[in-house]
Amino acid sequence: MSFESHQSSSIEIISGQTRSSGDGWLRAMLNGVRCRCPRCGTGKLFSSYLKVADICPSCDLELHHQRADDAPPYFTMFIVGHLLIPMVFIVETNWRPDWWVHLTLWLPMATVLTLWLLPMVKGAIVGIQWALGMHGFGEESVAADQDMGDLTHKAMPPVRDRL
Question: How far apart are CA 123 and CA 30, in angstroms?
Fold first, then answer.
């Protein structure tokens, strides 16, 4: 196979939403990192700091299916740890500062870096979920959730049923 054959991407329709294969997952993930809709790349992905919008305001993609759950904090801690730990070792081996210097230097840096990265990581995960048709973004996953007895979408009956 040639390099050009890998670059072409086919488009398939899944539940009325266009989805491209090939490099589509990468584009969707990068749109998520930019906190934009994974499909169109223009609509806002979040309605607040970490709350994913129910529907994209630009292309009407339903985003309420996403289940990022605990993955964004784990990946964020992984990234922040891998960025800060080498710097902590460098500072400690070269200057050997007191413990309070480490606290005043690394604690705010870790907090700010975590809060800055968390929406981008969550956006990337939502983008990958959309690109791969996971967790309600594709008809296959909805059918699989129902076959597996997933009751998360039935946890709370509609308001009219509760009255």
Answer: 8
* Residue 135 φ/ψ region, left for φ over 0, alpha for ψ in the -120 to 50 degree band, beta for the rest: left
Whole-structure pTM value = 0.74
Whether 153 and 143 have beta carbons less than 8 Å apart is answered as no
* CA–CA gap between residue 84 and residue 100 (Å, rounded): 17
Contact of 103 with 12, CB cutoff 8 Å: no
Name the amino acid, one letter, at 59.
C
Q: Are 79 and 110 in contact (CB under 8 A)?
A: no
Question: What is the residue-averaged pLDDT of the chain?
Answer: 81
pLDDT for 3-14, tens place per residue?
A: 444 444 444 444
Residues in Cβ contact with 23 at an 8 Å cutoff, skipping those fewer than 6 apart: 7, 9
- pLDDT of 34 > 60? The answer is yes
* Measured distance CA(82)–CA(95) in Å, rounded: 21
